[in-house]
Amino acid sequence: MENNTSLQQQLLDAGVHFGHLRKKWNPKMLPYIFAEKKGIHIIDLNKTVDSLQEASAALRQIARSGKKIMFVATKKQAKDIVAECAQRVNMPYATERWLGGMLTNFNTVRKSVKKMQSIEKMLNDGSAESLTKKERLTLSRDKDKMEKVLGGIAQLGRLPAALFIVDIGNEHIALAEAKRLGITTFGMVDTNCDPNKVDFAIPANDDATKSIAIITNYITAEIAAGLAERQASKDEETDDAVNENENKAARLQAEAEAEGGRGGRARGGNQPKRRVPNSRRPAGGGMAPKK
Predict the structure, then answer these.
(1) Which of 2, 195, 280, 283 is 20 to 30 Å apart from 206, CA to CA?
(2) Beta bridge partners of 165
(3) What residue ranges of the chain are covered by domains with CATH 3.40.50.10490?
(4) Are strands 40-43 and 18-21 parallel, antiparallel or unpaired?
(5) What is the pLDDT of residues 1-10, one digit of tens each?
(6) Which runs of consecutive H residues, i.e. helices, occur in the chain?
(7) Residue-by-residue DSSP string for 88-134
(8) Which of 151, 175, 13 is nearest to 86 (CA)?
């Protein structure tokens, strides 16, 4: 409870409770609104804390299972914070512009990413040296342009398992694509949005930099914890496998030594020699003379 109180205080200090003007509100946000002050809706921080912890626990589980969580925020005040947090936990992100079909037309987007990577390789390994200066400059510009939009998803080999969105109203295309593909959605939802559009809604001010930073950093810390748990369980499995192999090797060695010991005794010279009976037939081949 003490932890919740301190978290609530931090959210209060960051201005997470400030909603939009009353005239801009979405009636579906009513359960998350605490009061109205000077024409502005105030978000209930108790609900924010509960929603944030529930969403974080789910994201932690997804990270622990080894699946990818994509961060989406193209708003000016959110893009730098979100990109930095996503990079910290090595997750994909889209902060410049949401390309239509980034999820629903994923194969085509992957082709663009591969093209960007091949241009980068050409420019780095010197194979572009044979081109003219103008052609090199054009390639470089194309790469920079693609890097800006696709750089955050360069390492994404398959569709993410979840999307974390800042301002679901602004990122409605990303939300619609995720919904169409059955991808779990998490979002910061202000008083002017419909919280039912996301699977995990976190009621919060999605315009203030401080508010975006505190929510995103909290979620990123939980994802990092999930990744650490995954690594720890992997290490444990590796240790178990190593111990099992060592035990198996020791067992086989012991069996081999025991087998060798038995074989040594069998071949040793301590055993009595078998007597060969004297033949009655003389070497000449005739009958033995009667006595």
Answers:
(1) 2
(2) 72, 187
(3) 2-99+159-234
(4) antiparallel
(5) 456 668 888 8
(6) 2-13, 45-64, 76-88, 106-125, 133-150, 172-181, 209-267
(7) HTT--EE-S---TTTTTTHHHHHHHHHHHHHHHHHHHHTGGGGS-HH
(8) 151
Give this prediction's pTM.
0.76
Provide CB contacts within 8 A for 211, sequence distance 6+. Answer: 11, 14, 15, 16, 18, 204, 205
Cα–Cα dist 78/81, whole Å:
6
Sheet holding 69-72, edge to edge: 93-94, 69-72, 162-166, 184-189, 200-203
* Residue 211 burial (10 A CB sphere; 0-12, 13-18, 19+): buried
CATH hierarchy code of domain 2-99+159-234: 3.40.50.10490
Q: Say which CATH architecture domain 104-158 belongs to.
A: Orthogonal Bundle (1.10)
Polymer length in residues for the chain: 291
At 134-163, the pLDDT tens digits run 888 888 898 888 888 888 898 888 899 999
Closest CA to 97 of 149, 142, 141: 149
Please name every residue paired with 199 in a beta bridge, in sequence order, or none if there are none. Answer: none
- Dihedral of the alpha carbons of 101, 104, 108, 110, in degrees to the nearest 10: 100
